[in-house]
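Feature request, filed as a ticket because there's no other form

It would be nice if the structure record came with a short human-readable summary line next to the tokens. Right now we just get the raw output. Example of a typical job, pasted below so the devs can see what we mean:
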Amino acid sequence: MAMTQSAPEIPVLQLAGVRKTFGSFEAVAGIDMKIREGEFVTIVGPSGSGKTTLLRMLAGLESPSDGAIELRGRRINDVPSNRRPTCLVFQSLALFPHRTVGQNIEFPLKVRKVAPAERKARALELLRMVRLPEDIYGKNVMRCSGGERQRVALARAFAYDPDVLFFDEPLSALDYKLKKTLEKELKDLHRASGKTFVYITHSLEEAMVMSDRIGVMRAGKIVQIGSPSDIYAAPRTKFVAEFFGELNAIELRREGAGYVRADGAPIALPPTALESARAWALIRPELMRFAAPEGSANTVAGTVVNEYSFGSRNQFQVLSEGRTWLVEAPRGSDSPRLGDAVTLGWDAADTLVVED
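Raw output as currently delivered:
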């Protein structure tokens, strides 16, 4: 008996050739992307890369100049935000300042004419979900701490029962310790709710901690999208690699079937399928070491000029022939001191060869 083939899964969100122009300026330059049901997708990029404009189009606050946005297979380009099964959590939170916590959370339910008793029961349930005590229900929202207000905004977003939740840098104004706590709580909420999250941030740490996939924007385009580990360990370009952490970059030029250092110094490289005239060899500081691999061409002699402590690890700056190299080592390891002459080394297998 022949097996029936299941229908392909329709993405919860799909973008095809989405563009947004403001006069002659192209803020979003033709984006194609699919977001699966229940994913946590984060969009990162430098200021002016187009990520906020993209989010506003997804949330219905802007209309695309071209292309299509589909929600569960339905084109929603011109559907206003209040008629979409989505919700946007703003950076400013946009809470009603003269209302109580309960009134803020219940607002979407009141608009839908849910009975008062049912509204309160749902609000209390949502308070528990975002790890706030029930006795905060009657407290004026402006008397709450920054972390409490953040959780109230999340509870109100869930009260809409949206298919997709959009987040516009919601943790940017919080102190470091609270931000770390809420990063974990947001990830827990995502997992427990099964909702689809689309998150915009400048914080690479937030993106790495919370996301299933990360999309990196540059000049209105998504230049790479993948898991956090893929983005960090296998960037396609120097731009993406630099955006996700410090590195040592060596310019390469094409010679024959492979690459050599542009300055003529020896280097051992892994195999690569790149064929562009110019490329870069990238080595993360944690993959450099104060020892030269035996017989390796990948060595640098220099002097330790700075040392920085990052808790569990130390970072060293080594000056060699006018350029600075970065090396990281676990704290407490047998490390050199300032002014020491050292030889650095790295394995060819730890080198990323990428386009400009």
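Something like this underneath would help us a lot:
The mean pLDDT is 91.
The two ends are 54 Å apart (CA to CA).
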